[in-house]
Amino acid sequence: xxxxxxxxxxxxTANVISIAAVAGPYLPGLVAAQGNQAGTAVDAVNPxxxxxxxxxxxxxxxxxxxxxxxxARTIIAQEQGAAGDLVLLQTGLQQLNAQAGGQEWxxxxxxxxxxxxxxxxxxxxxxxxxxxxxxxxxxxPEVWQLVGYGxxxxxxxxxxxxxxxxxxxxx
Length: 171
Fold this sequence. Notes:
- By secondary structure, this protein is mainly α.
- The protein is built from 9 helices and no strands.
- It has one domain (about 25-145).
- It is flat and about 65 Å long.
- About 20% of the residues are buried.
- Residues about 30-45 have low confidence and may be disordered.
């Protein structure tokens, strides 16, 4: 058993701070999304429209619709927890509905939805959603295999034992 020394205390403290710094921005939204399965935030913003937006920004045929819906719930919870309201999401989805001629944007076919997204591509809403969706989607281990990411190499023994020098593809 290790003696509890000042060096060990500093090491543990540094590890906790590092983990909090990396995971901190995502924890409030993830916790709130878990507890808000039918909450009031979901009622204020159409989660189906937001899930469609996530899918259209990062379309993968192999990713289940439930993954996109989960990301939409997380974004709603993060927005409500961070700002206390959902103005950004409501305004952005209203912009998309306006581009759809007043119809519900998520009900249009994929080509028309893409055209509407292209029209708002310079908006703050679009830029924020692009970054949030990218981070939330590709941080999910269930998505890694679908996009060809093998996971954290360090946790699997590092690159030395995983073919870092395999350049057969170059020939």
